Amino acid sequence: MLRWLLAPLVVAYVAYEGLAAVVQAFGGSLALRPVFLELAYVMGLLMVAFAVVFLISRRTAARAGSTVASDLLGQARGPERYREDVAIRQLLEGDRPPPMAGNALRLKIAVFVSGHTHAPAMSDLGRADGRRTVIVNTGCWLRQLQPVDARLGAPPVFVPTFVNSHVRIRSSQDEVTVELWDHPKPAERRLSWIERAAIIGRTPHQPPVAAEPRLVARHVVARGARELP
């Protein structure tokens, strides 16, 4: 909207100044400057009114959407919203086999690896009998659009990034080592000027093309008498 409103006015004013300079060189004059000043004043009022309406309507819509979402989630899922990591922890705490394990007996799992569209993560679960299990999420291995908070309450700007992460597991006689690795990869996307202005100073840096894999997190689980990797 700013581009379509201001660009013609700026072009017209530049053309006017150039024409005024040419006319003045021949001893004449142009008297359109007050017209441009009035147009700029009207444009300024329109932009201020638009900004006020935008901020008020955005806050109202966000409040209404949050209330509706909370009510619907509460009715559909009960008082606590379903989360993948919580479900995995509950499964492991009860020593229940994973969904794809069929009718297998209870497993003393030392490492539980899952892949999902969420961000990669690693956590440690302590059992009642002293055993520990590492829960690691490898991510989605795809190009994502991650939101970056904009300034002045504007909507977030979605910046591309690649999620190229993987898990490395090494087992020895005494312990199991679990590592979460990320292989940075640039995901260029040309942002518009208003998007760049909205997140100025907050724009994430894209990794170089030849970036090497880097270690994100590492856990070591001591092998107990009843643990299986």
How is this structure best summarized?
This protein has 229 residues and is an alpha+beta fold. It is 37% helix and 23% strand.
Low-confidence stretches: 225-229
Strand content: 15-25%
What is the helical fraction, as a range of percent? 25-40%
Radius of gyration: 29 Å
Total helical segments: 4
Structural class: alpha+beta
The topology string of helices and strands comes to HHHEEEEEEEHE
What is the overall pLDDT average?
A: 76
**Largest sheet, spatial ordering of strands:** 1-3-2
Approximate shape: elongated
Query: Which sheet architecture does the biggest sheet show?
Result: 3 strands, mixed
> What separation lies between the terminal Cα atoms?
58 Å
The number of distinct β-strands equals: 8
Question: If you had to describe this structure to a student in words, what would you say it looks like?
Answer:
This protein is of the alpha+beta class and 229 residues long. Helix content is 37%, strand content 23%. The protein has helices at residues 2-25, 33-77, 84-93, 193-198, and strands at residues 111-114, 121-126, 132-137, 143-148, 157-162, 165-171, 175-182, 214-222. The strands form 3 sheets. It has a 3-stranded mixed β-sheet with strand order 1-3-2, with helices on one face. Strands 6-7-8 form a 3-stranded antiparallel β-sheet, with no helix packed on it. It has a two-stranded antiparallel sheet with strand order 4-5. A hairpin with a 5-residue loop joins strand 2 (121-126) and strand 3. Helix 1 (2-25) packs antiparallel against helix 2 (33-77). Residues 225-229 have low confidence and may be disordered.
